[in-house]
Amino acid sequence: MKKILFPIVLLLLTISCSKDDEGGIITIPTCNTPENIQVSDVTSDSAIISWEATNTSANYTIEYGVSGFSQGNGTSITNSNTTITLENLASNTSYDVYIQSVCSSTNVSVFSDVTSFTTIAPLVATDFLPNLSDFNLFAGDLENLTPSVYAFEYELNTPLFTDYAHKQRLIVLPPGTSMTYVNDGLPDFPDNTLISKTFYYNNDERDTSLGKKIIETRILIKKNGSWEFGNYIWNDSQTEATLDSSGDGGTSTFSYIDNSGSTQNLDYKIPTSTQCLQCHNSNDVATPIGPKLRTMNMSNQLQNMIDQNLLTNLSNPSTVSVLPNWEDTSYTLEERARAYFDINCAHCHSPGGDCYPESNLDLRYETSIRNSHITEHGPSIKTRTQSLIQDYSMPLIGTTILHPEGYTLIEDYIDTL
């Protein structure tokens, strides 16, 4: 019985929906679903969507939203063309798109299958903008210090001492470029390279989940073959850092709990622009200090840079020397002490540095002990590194407290000479 009723019902529906006023049959064209949906020209905040229509359609409904959204809860747009630009999208975000043909108010197609795309991350700026957030150097909330996809983080075998501050070091190369190996020192960086170093303290070194206090982010940008400097000072709420346009630096007073559970109170000195140039100066030319290849030659770091085409003109990182980690006791006392001198002192105490030729000390790691003049200046070095006297203690700038571990290393080494 059911088999007989179904064709009868279908016939009646066809007749009732298809008769015109004169009793003729009207065939309603099928409203076809859009096909061959394409996504092009995807940017950090927009994308062009195009499709093909197999019927003459007055309008189309485009519904889109962050990937995984439920249809009916997305953003809907009506469009009369087969191309539309979606704008004001979030960067580095995946989106789903559905499209429906609207042939008339009573004749619409089903929605297309989902089409997905992902917006790109915004490029990192290479001009000194008013706020750190303007750079797009970090993704998401600024305080999380999550690097942009265009940035890569690097570490140093033996880092500079800055009142026990932690440091996040980033390099951003222009898309499609790389650093070029020259020697074991600084690589050749392309123009519009950005290097940043962010200084922070964990609120409690025993539990990093308790957050951190971010003090400053120093930025170097290479423009037309020369390096330019800018310093961004973080606000107390840790939501933004502002360019120190005056170059006056400042003081950040705070406390944190160290690994032993003791509370440490600091008056952290943010350097002035003049002080920055005192250290970042070689023969009166501004220059980076940390990212020398020998200092970055650790934990397959150089090999990873080669594999990612971030470093070229070098095939075998083992040919690059290694600046020892001064805390690694597998090295000799001399190697450790000389490495400490190199990273903490040699940028000023070397030919072309700020303290040369007033002082003939040459504290570069590769300089022989005879030519370094460490032996003859040994007593002075010990005195200057174990005291806090303005314009006398070493280093002259960059620290506000003593580094007893470093001083002990230096003292032990000098006592052997």
UniProtKB/TrEMBL annotation:
CDD domains per record: FN3
A Pfam family matched in the record: fn3
Fibronectin type-III domain sequence ranges: 33-122
Signal peptide start and end residues: none
UniProtKB keywords: Repeat
SUPFAM superfamilies: Fibronectin type III
Protein name as annotated: Fibronectin type-III domain-containing protein
